[in-house]
Amino acid sequence: MSGEDLFFPKFDDHLDESDPDIVVLRRQDGAFVAAVSSRGATREGIVDTATEDYRELLQVHRIRQGEAAEKHKSA
Questions:
Q1: pTM for the full model?
Q2: How much is the average pLDDT of 7-22?
Q3: How far apart are CA 24 and CA 67, in angstroms?
Q4: How is the chain split among helix, strand and coil, in percent rounded to 5?
Q5: N or C end of the chain: which has fewer CB within 10 A?
Q6: Residue ranges per domain, the chain?
């Protein structure tokens, strides 16, 4: 596998504050990550949630990269 194949998922989450009662954390593609009460939302909590979501994305990415490498080896 070359260095060109080692792209990581983009990390560009944003807050959707269109509802005054709920803050929604979304990925750059608009996918839902989490929702919290706007009253109880803290910067630290949102950052922790975004970080955990990114860890999960990286894990899925590594699995897919491994599967692609195996397919490439067997071809």
A1: 0.70
A2: 84
A3: 32
A4: 45, 25, 30
A5: C
A6: 3-74
